[in-house]
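Appendix B. Chain record.
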Amino acid sequence: MPPQSSVLRWVRALAYCALTLPLMPVQAVLLLLRSPLADRLPLAYHRLVCHILGIMIERRGDVSPTRPTLFVANHTSYLDIEVLGASIPGSFVSKADVDGWPLFGRLARLQRTVFIDRKRRSVAHQRDALSARLRAGDRLILFPEGTSGDGQRLLPFKSALFAAVMEAASGGDITVQPVSVAYLTLDGMPLGRSYRPFFAWYGDMALAPHLWTMLGLGRLGVSVTFHPAVNAAGFASRKALAEHCAAAIAAGLSAALAGREGMAQRPVSPPSAPEALAFADAVEGA
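Structure tokens predicted for this chain:
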């Protein structure tokens, strides 16, 4: 068990509430007025939250400046929202049940989150909703694993939602950028397998006690790697696009965990390479 501080836990919780609660009505008004600040405020907000929570982000690569862009990332924890929200001016794609969470559901709506129901009968509707947002020029952040993992490896991608990208790409250029997120250090020391679960939230872990424990821990070091962006129209199918993103993200995650982040910036092998093939069988087909 890593050292914890009850004082730090309460300071962070109170500081989070003091920042969040007053800004919620401000963001609501900005959205109502359709102000450009409605896109900028969440970025500043997430950066302040990272500061409060002691999250130090090391970014590698360049964030795609084009609109629309779909950012495809691995998913390890609820902290991914703060880390990526502090790095990308965009909206998230989230599972539908988050909409009903106290406080966090409201925050997600204020950032114009796209809520999706992964039941098969809803796939067409969700695809159309995502496609419409991309055609409108939005930047969206997608976790195609469909759930969070342990932060050590990439889970199989669910390729169904990539169909929205291919559909939108038929009417214009859609940029897709793979992003690797790795949780690396606690107070400057490597997390390792034993400490990473204190930040990774997955499986049947209960949210409240995990969050309360995390608030009392030290400073978290996170690596975010932005891989070269690609044009969706350059791929023959949604599966090919999903395989490319999976290969890039897996390589970036592996390099970050091994301390070889520079290697993640090398061009990613095509889907026929062994690394991509490892995911090809796991990616869901039509």
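Further analysis of this model is presented in Appendix C.
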